[in-house]
Inverse folding.
Protein backbone atom coordinates (compact mmCIF):
# COMPACT_ATOMS: atom_id res chain seq x y z
CA UNK A 1 0.00 0.00 0.00
CA UNK A 2 2.86 2.36 0.83
CA UNK A 3 4.37 1.68 -2.60
CA UNK A 4 1.07 2.52 -4.30
CA UNK A 5 0.84 5.81 -2.40
CA UNK A 6 4.43 6.63 -3.31
CA UNK A 7 3.77 5.99 -7.02
CA UNK A 8 0.60 8.08 -6.88
CA UNK A 9 2.43 10.96 -5.21
CA UNK A 10 5.22 10.81 -7.76
CA UNK A 11 2.71 10.83 -10.62
CA UNK A 12 0.90 13.83 -9.13
CA UNK A 13 4.18 15.67 -8.66
CA UNK A 14 5.25 15.06 -12.27
CA UNK A 15 1.88 16.27 -13.54
CA UNK A 16 2.17 19.42 -11.46
CA UNK A 17 5.67 20.11 -12.76
CA UNK A 18 4.57 19.58 -16.38
CA UNK A 19 1.51 21.79 -16.04
CA UNK A 20 3.62 24.50 -14.45
CA UNK A 21 6.06 24.27 -17.33
CA UNK A 22 3.22 24.78 -19.79
CA UNK A 23 1.99 27.84 -17.91
CA UNK A 24 5.37 29.50 -17.64
CA UNK A 25 7.21 28.40 -20.78
CA UNK A 26 4.51 28.09 -23.43
CA UNK A 27 6.23 30.40 -25.88
CA UNK A 28 9.52 28.54 -25.69
CA UNK A 29 7.81 25.18 -26.02
CA UNK A 30 5.95 26.10 -29.19
CA UNK A 31 8.90 27.88 -30.77
CA UNK A 32 10.79 24.61 -30.40
CA UNK A 33 7.87 22.47 -31.55
CA UNK A 34 7.43 24.38 -34.79
CA UNK A 35 11.14 24.55 -35.60
CA UNK A 36 12.60 22.31 -38.29
CA UNK A 37 13.26 18.89 -36.82
CA UNK A 38 15.45 15.99 -37.88
CA UNK A 39 14.58 12.47 -36.76
CA UNK A 40 16.59 9.31 -37.46
CA UNK A 41 15.89 7.62 -40.79
CA UNK A 42 13.76 4.50 -40.63
CA UNK A 43 15.81 1.34 -40.30
CA UNK A 44 13.12 -1.31 -40.70
CA UNK A 45 11.65 -2.99 -43.76
CA UNK A 46 8.33 -1.07 -43.71
CA UNK A 47 7.40 2.50 -44.62
CA UNK A 48 3.67 2.74 -44.11
CA UNK A 49 1.52 5.42 -45.72
CA UNK A 50 -2.21 6.20 -45.50
CA UNK A 51 -4.19 7.51 -48.51
CA UNK A 52 -7.58 9.25 -48.29
CA UNK A 53 -9.59 10.02 -51.45
CA UNK A 54 -12.10 12.72 -50.50
CA UNK A 55 -13.81 12.36 -53.91
CA UNK A 56 -15.08 8.98 -52.77
CA UNK A 57 -15.93 9.77 -49.13
CA UNK A 58 -19.71 9.95 -48.53
CA UNK A 59 -19.50 10.86 -44.85
CA UNK A 60 -21.20 7.68 -43.66
CA UNK A 61 -18.96 7.43 -40.55
CA UNK A 62 -18.51 3.67 -40.94
CA UNK A 63 -14.80 4.30 -40.39
CA UNK A 64 -15.53 6.14 -37.14
CA UNK A 65 -17.72 3.30 -35.84
CA UNK A 66 -15.19 0.64 -36.83
CA UNK A 67 -12.41 2.54 -35.07
CA UNK A 68 -14.46 2.87 -31.88
CA UNK A 69 -15.14 -0.87 -31.90
CA UNK A 70 -11.58 -1.88 -32.76
CA UNK A 71 -9.85 0.36 -30.24
CA UNK A 72 -12.62 0.45 -27.63
CA UNK A 73 -12.26 4.20 -27.27
CA UNK A 74 -14.38 5.83 -24.53
CA UNK A 75 -17.46 7.92 -25.21
CA UNK A 76 -16.79 11.44 -26.39
CA UNK A 77 -13.31 10.89 -27.88
CA UNK A 78 -12.30 9.73 -31.35
CA UNK A 79 -9.18 8.46 -33.09
CA UNK A 80 -10.68 9.36 -36.47
CA UNK A 81 -13.57 11.52 -37.60
CA UNK A 82 -15.00 13.05 -40.78
CA UNK A 83 -15.22 16.83 -41.22
CA UNK A 84 -17.40 18.70 -43.70
CA UNK A 85 -15.57 21.44 -45.58
CA UNK A 86 -17.38 24.14 -47.51
CA UNK A 87 -15.03 25.24 -50.26
CA UNK A 88 -15.49 28.37 -52.38
CA UNK A 89 -13.97 28.40 -55.85
CA UNK A 90 -14.21 30.21 -59.18
CA UNK A 91 -15.52 28.26 -62.15
CA UNK A 92 -12.77 28.61 -64.81
CA UNK A 93 -15.34 28.38 -67.62
CA UNK A 94 -17.93 30.92 -66.44
CA UNK A 95 -16.04 32.99 -63.85
CA UNK A 96 -18.84 32.35 -61.36
CA UNK A 97 -18.11 31.84 -57.67
CA UNK A 98 -19.37 28.45 -56.58
CA UNK A 99 -19.34 26.31 -53.46
CA UNK A 100 -18.69 22.63 -53.01
CA UNK A 101 -18.91 20.52 -49.87
CA UNK A 102 -16.32 17.83 -49.17
CA UNK A 103 -16.23 15.08 -46.58
CA UNK A 104 -12.68 15.11 -45.23
CA UNK A 105 -11.62 12.23 -42.95
CA UNK A 106 -9.07 13.09 -40.27
CA UNK A 107 -6.71 10.86 -38.30
CA UNK A 108 -3.16 10.87 -36.95
CA UNK A 109 -0.67 11.67 -39.71
CA UNK A 110 2.19 9.65 -38.16
CA UNK A 111 4.52 12.42 -39.24
CA UNK A 112 8.12 11.86 -40.22
CA UNK A 113 9.00 14.90 -38.07
CA UNK A 114 6.43 14.59 -35.26
CA UNK A 115 6.30 17.62 -32.94
CA UNK A 116 4.45 15.55 -30.31
CA UNK A 117 7.57 13.41 -29.90
CA UNK A 118 9.84 16.41 -29.51
CA UNK A 119 7.86 18.06 -26.70
CA UNK A 120 7.07 14.99 -24.58
CA UNK A 121 9.00 15.52 -21.29
CA UNK A 122 9.01 11.82 -20.32
CA UNK A 123 9.47 10.23 -23.77
CA UNK A 124 6.06 8.60 -23.61
CA UNK A 125 5.41 9.51 -27.25
CA UNK A 126 7.94 8.08 -29.66
CA UNK A 127 8.49 7.41 -33.36
CA UNK A 128 9.32 3.79 -34.10
CA UNK A 129 12.37 3.72 -36.35
CA UNK A 130 11.38 0.34 -37.80
CA UNK A 131 8.20 1.45 -39.55
CA UNK A 132 7.80 5.15 -38.71
CA UNK A 133 4.65 4.78 -36.62
CA UNK A 134 4.22 7.41 -33.89
CA UNK A 135 3.06 5.56 -30.80
CA UNK A 136 2.55 5.98 -27.07
CA UNK A 137 4.07 4.32 -24.01
CA UNK A 138 0.99 4.61 -21.81
CA UNK A 139 2.80 3.59 -18.64
CA UNK A 140 5.10 6.61 -18.95
CA UNK A 141 2.52 9.26 -19.82
CA UNK A 142 1.88 11.88 -17.11
CA UNK A 143 -1.06 13.53 -18.90
CA UNK A 144 0.64 16.92 -19.26
CA UNK A 145 -1.02 17.44 -22.70
CA UNK A 146 2.05 19.06 -24.28
CA UNK A 147 1.75 16.64 -27.21
CA UNK A 148 -1.88 17.67 -27.69
CA UNK A 149 -0.90 21.34 -27.88
CA UNK A 150 2.08 20.70 -30.16
CA UNK A 151 0.12 18.64 -32.72
CA UNK A 152 -1.07 20.95 -35.54
CA UNK A 153 -3.71 18.43 -36.63
CA UNK A 154 -5.74 18.18 -33.41
CA UNK A 155 -5.59 14.39 -33.25
CA UNK A 156 -4.45 13.89 -29.66
CA UNK A 157 -6.72 13.79 -26.60
CA UNK A 158 -6.73 12.85 -22.96
CA UNK A 159 -8.32 9.44 -22.44
CA UNK A 160 -11.08 9.98 -19.84
CA UNK A 161 -10.67 6.47 -18.44
CA UNK A 162 -6.91 5.87 -18.46
CA UNK A 163 -6.19 9.60 -17.91
CA UNK A 164 -3.25 9.48 -20.31
CA UNK A 165 -2.84 10.85 -23.83
CA UNK A 166 -4.17 8.79 -26.70
CA UNK A 167 -4.63 8.92 -30.48
CA UNK A 168 -4.89 6.86 -33.67
CA UNK A 169 -2.19 4.20 -34.02
CA UNK A 170 -3.02 3.18 -37.60
CA UNK A 171 -4.11 -0.07 -35.91
CA UNK A 172 -0.49 -1.10 -35.38
CA UNK A 173 -1.64 -4.42 -33.92
CA UNK A 174 -3.17 -5.18 -37.33
CA UNK A 175 -0.82 -3.46 -39.78
CA UNK A 176 2.27 -5.07 -38.30
CA UNK A 177 0.65 -8.44 -38.97
CA UNK A 178 -0.14 -7.85 -42.62
CA UNK A 179 -3.68 -6.48 -42.14
CA UNK A 180 -5.08 -3.03 -42.92
CA UNK A 181 -6.48 -0.63 -40.32
CA UNK A 182 -10.09 -1.33 -39.32
CA UNK A 183 -11.32 1.94 -40.84
CA UNK A 184 -9.87 0.96 -44.22
CA UNK A 185 -11.49 -2.48 -44.18
CA UNK A 186 -15.01 -1.16 -43.60
CA UNK A 187 -15.06 1.83 -45.97
CA UNK A 188 -17.89 1.07 -48.44
CA UNK A 189 -16.54 3.39 -51.16
CA UNK A 190 -12.84 2.55 -50.76
CA UNK A 191 -12.10 6.17 -49.88
CA UNK A 192 -9.34 5.01 -47.53
CA UNK A 193 -6.33 2.88 -48.34
CA UNK A 194 -3.15 1.83 -46.61
CA UNK A 195 0.12 0.47 -47.89
CA UNK A 196 3.86 0.08 -47.58
CA UNK A 197 6.07 2.30 -49.74
CA UNK A 198 9.02 0.03 -49.01
CA UNK A 199 7.33 -2.69 -51.07
CA UNK A 200 7.53 -1.80 -54.80
CA UNK A 201 4.75 -4.29 -55.53
CA UNK A 202 2.29 -2.81 -53.03
CA UNK A 203 -0.96 -1.67 -54.76
CA UNK A 204 -0.61 1.69 -53.00
CA UNK A 205 2.00 2.63 -55.60
CA UNK A 206 -0.57 2.37 -58.39
CA UNK A 207 -2.85 4.80 -56.54
CA UNK A 208 -0.03 7.31 -56.03
CA UNK A 209 1.11 7.11 -59.64
CA UNK A 210 -2.39 7.71 -61.01
CA UNK A 211 -3.33 10.63 -58.76
CA UNK A 212 -2.11 13.97 -57.45
CA UNK A 213 -1.71 13.81 -53.69
CA UNK A 214 -1.90 16.49 -51.02
CA UNK A 215 -0.88 16.81 -47.38
CA UNK A 216 -2.38 19.03 -44.69
CA UNK A 217 -0.53 22.04 -43.24
CA UNK A 218 2.81 21.52 -45.00
CA UNK A 219 4.09 24.79 -43.53
CA UNK A 220 4.39 23.09 -40.12
CA UNK A 221 7.33 21.01 -41.38
CA UNK A 222 5.94 17.77 -39.92
CA UNK A 223 6.09 15.75 -43.16
CA UNK A 224 2.73 14.00 -42.65
CA UNK A 225 2.20 10.52 -44.06
CA UNK A 226 -1.54 10.77 -44.60
CA UNK A 227 -1.84 11.64 -48.29
CA UNK A 228 -5.08 13.13 -49.61
CA UNK A 229 -6.54 12.94 -53.10
CA UNK A 230 -9.04 15.59 -54.20
CA UNK A 231 -7.95 18.63 -52.16
CA UNK A 232 -6.18 20.57 -54.91
CA UNK A 233 -6.31 24.36 -54.79
CA UNK A 234 -7.21 24.75 -51.12
CA UNK A 235 -5.29 26.98 -48.71
CA UNK A 236 -2.84 25.08 -46.53
CA UNK A 237 -2.76 22.08 -48.87
CA UNK A 238 0.38 20.92 -50.66
CA UNK A 239 -0.12 19.41 -54.11
CA UNK A 240 2.24 16.86 -55.61
CA UNK A 241 1.92 14.05 -58.12
CA UNK A 242 3.72 11.00 -59.38
CA UNK A 243 5.33 8.11 -57.60
CA UNK A 244 7.16 9.89 -54.79
CA UNK A 245 5.89 11.86 -51.81
CA UNK A 246 8.34 14.55 -50.73
CA UNK A 247 8.10 17.46 -48.36
CA UNK A 248 8.23 20.64 -50.47
CA UNK A 249 9.83 24.01 -50.07
CA UNK A 250 8.02 27.15 -51.15
CA UNK A 251 8.33 25.91 -54.73
CA UNK A 252 8.63 22.21 -55.46
CA UNK A 253 9.42 20.39 -58.71
CA UNK A 254 7.89 16.93 -59.03
CA UNK A 255 10.69 14.52 -60.03
CA UNK A 256 8.15 12.25 -61.74
CA UNK A 257 6.90 14.67 -64.39
CA UNK A 258 8.92 17.87 -63.98
CA UNK A 259 5.87 19.96 -63.06
CA UNK A 260 6.38 22.86 -60.67
CA UNK A 261 4.00 23.38 -57.76
CA UNK A 262 3.58 26.23 -55.28
CA UNK A 263 1.41 26.67 -52.23
CA UNK A 264 -2.06 28.02 -52.91
CA UNK A 265 -2.75 30.66 -50.25
CA UNK A 266 -5.37 32.67 -52.10
CA UNK A 267 -8.49 31.16 -50.58
CA UNK A 268 -8.41 33.13 -47.34
CA UNK A 269 -12.17 32.73 -46.89
CA UNK A 270 -11.76 29.00 -46.37
CA UNK A 271 -11.30 28.51 -42.63
CA UNK A 272 -10.20 25.09 -41.46
CA UNK A 273 -12.13 24.02 -38.38
CA UNK A 274 -10.28 22.26 -35.57
CA UNK A 275 -12.54 19.87 -33.70
CA UNK A 276 -10.09 19.59 -30.80
Amino acid sequence: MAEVKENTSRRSFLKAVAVGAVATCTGAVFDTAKAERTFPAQKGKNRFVFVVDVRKCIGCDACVAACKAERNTPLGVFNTWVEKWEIGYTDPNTGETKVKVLNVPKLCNHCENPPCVKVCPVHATYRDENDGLVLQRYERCIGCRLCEQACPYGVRYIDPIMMVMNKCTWCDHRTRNGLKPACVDVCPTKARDFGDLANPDDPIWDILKRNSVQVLKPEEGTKPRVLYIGLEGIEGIYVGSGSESRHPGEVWTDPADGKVYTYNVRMQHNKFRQLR
About this structure: The helical segments are 2-34, 62-71, 115-119, 146-150, 172-175, 182-186, 204-210. The radius of gyration is 20 Å. The CA atoms of residues 9 and 25 lie 24 Å apart. The longest helix spans residues 2-34.
